[in-house]
């Protein structure tokens, strides 16, 4: 899809990675400059260097990494024209729709083309993606990007309202993916487009349960089977490099932490019995609107907890032995950060040809 050469050339699309939050696409155009809070860079200076290079700014303000685009990086860097699909959902949908090299797929709507790029790479030049978008300006922009990214032969983009006018192919595709506000209106059309000679699959992406219920009814009415709904939830893992400490030191810290907790418990008991004596209503300065506020104390406790358990070295290691300088540890966040959407999957199983009769 994109250049596979080792070195960057004029006219290449590259991904400029500045920070995890600041990732942008750049078309290398000698004569132009890139200005950012991490300094300024001449496009011409990037020509001829290997993809993946770290480049210092001309005014010493910082550096950038210049990366080869991939569908994953494109999803992180693309200009948003709509809400988009992110990698957790893309991977899940691709897998459950059994999209693979050579598959024929329909998607609607195209939106910002995030899902399209991943599908195009998966199906390769032996597969095909029919993508539909009813917003004309979005359709034109996506078509332009597909062509610039070398996907023009793999993707056919049609500007149309699929709920009203249906798709442009019949009995052709292995999978249909609908990311539309009213997917139920496109399900009969999707059934027409799906292959009838082999098992075919559909997925509808909807943010709320009411949409799921209407979609499930429509899938049932149209004869789809194995209707299953998944919710994707994100639980990030944080990876840190920490300095390990000897067991004795870790035990000391744990003891101090335990003591602090006990002091706090005693303090709370004393405070609540004083309130009872003074006949005051139960109020807690740590509680606002039913939510516990993070006090500095509790924050300190958190730090203590984070520091200790992963940082202990083998008890058999003698104090004189040097400790490893850094070790990687990961901590799973207790909070589920994001509900992305509900994914409703179903299958269309080929019906036996009517001419076949079973003889006893
Ligand atoms: N999956 C896309 C991505 O990953 O970038 C994002 C799709 S966006 C959320 C939904 C798109 O569907 C919008 O661009 C909208 O214009 C388009 N759309 C809504 N109803 C449509 C319809 N009936 N026919 C075709 N496109 C439609």
From TrEMBL:
Biased composition (Basic and acidic residues): 257-266
CDD domains referenced in this protein's UniProt entry, alphabetically: AdoMet_MTases
All copies of domain tRNA (adenine(58)-N(1))-methyltransferase catalytic subunit TRM61 C-terminal, residue ranges: 62-347
One GO cellular component term noted in the UniProt record for this chain: tRNA (m1A) methyltransferase complex
Coiled coil: none
Entry EC number(s): 2.1.1.220
Gene Ontology terms, MF aspect: tRNA (adenine(58)-N1)-methyltransferase activity
Function in brief: Catalytic subunit of tRNA (adenine-N(1)-)-methyltransferase, which catalyzes the formation of N(1)-methyladenine at position 58 (m1A58) in initiator methionyl-tRNA.
Protein name in UniProt: tRNA (adenine(58)-N(1))-methyltransferase catalytic subunit TRM61
């Amino acid at each position: 899809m994109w250049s596979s050469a080792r070195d960057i050339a004029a006219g290449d699309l590259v991904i400029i990675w500045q920070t995890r939050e600041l990732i942008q696409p750049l078309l290398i155009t000698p004569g132009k400059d890139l200005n950012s809070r991490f300094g300024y860079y001449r496009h011409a200076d990037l020509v001829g260097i290997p993809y993946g290079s770290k480049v210092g700014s001309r005014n010493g303000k910082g550096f950038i990494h210049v990366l080869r685009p991939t569908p994953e990086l494109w999803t992180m860097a693309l200009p948003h024209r709509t809400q988009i699909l992110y990698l957790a959902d893309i991977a899940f949908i691709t897998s459950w729709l059994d999209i693979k090299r050579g598959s024929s797929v329909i998607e609607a709507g195209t939106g910002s083309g995030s899902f399209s790029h991943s599908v195009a790479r998966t199906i390769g030049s032996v597969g095909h993606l029919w993508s539909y978008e009813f917003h004309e300006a979005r359709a034109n922009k996506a078509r332009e990007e597909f062509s610039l990214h070398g996907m023009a032969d793999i993707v056919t983009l049609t500007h149309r309202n699929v709920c009203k006018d249906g798709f442009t192919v019949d009995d052709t595709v292995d999978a249909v993916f609908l990311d539309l506000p009213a997917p139920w209106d496109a399900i009969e059309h999707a059934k027409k487009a799906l292959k009838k000679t082999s098992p075919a699959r559909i997925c509808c992406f909807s943010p709320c349960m009411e949409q799921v219920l209407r979609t499930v009814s429509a899938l049932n009415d149209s004869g789809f089977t194995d209707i299953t709904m998944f919710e994707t939830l994100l639980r990030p893992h944080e990876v840190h490099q920490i300095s390990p400490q000897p067991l004795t030191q870790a035990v000391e810290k744990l003891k101090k932490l335990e003591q602090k907790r006990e002091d706090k418990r005693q303090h709370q008991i004393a405070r609540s019995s004083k309130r009872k004596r003074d006949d005051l209503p139960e109020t807690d300065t740590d509680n606002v609107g039913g939510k516990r506020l993070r006090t500095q104390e509790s924050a300190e406790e958190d730090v203590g907890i984070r520091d200790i358990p992963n940082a202990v070295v083998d008890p058999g290691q003698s104090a004189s032995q040097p400790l490893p300088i850094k070790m990687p540890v990961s901590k799973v966040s207790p909070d589920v950060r994001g509900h992305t959407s509900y994914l409703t999957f179903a299958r269309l199983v080929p019906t036996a040809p009517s001419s076949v009769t079973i003889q006893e």
